[in-house]
Amino acid sequence: MIYFAYGANLCKAHMALWCPGSEPLMPAVLPGHRLVFRFWADIVPSAGDNVHGALYQVTKSDLVDLEEFEDCPALSEQVGIEVRSAEGLVDAVTYRMRPGYSFAPPAEEYLRLIEQGYKDWSLDPAVLPLRAET
Prior knowledge:
Layout: E1 2-5, H1 12-18, E2 23-38, E3 40-57, H2 60-69, E4 76-85, E5 88-97, H3 108-120
Antiparallel strand pairs: 1-3, 2-3, 2-4, 4-5
């Protein structure tokens, strides 16, 4: 299965700890969404915006580990998405937070993981929102 990471799991070292069977594939973009913080990174529909991230090949065991990391189903839910990559459109899964969580800035340590992920994948950090929505 293909997994789209846009938060802490962009950091290759972090992803390898949580999902040792995963294989980094390539950068990708989720169109029609934007990245926000509700303390944790989240995606929300937003016409004309894009969320930059990366694709990993994951095993069934990795998916179980991702469910734990993403605190499913209490905090988040797995969703099927279509992303753009250098190889064209790709069907993937990702996680988004359940409704009802307020916008809030991320913890510094968490933000550093995401920033490292942007470096790992050569993504432009200028697109990373560094504050919560108002």
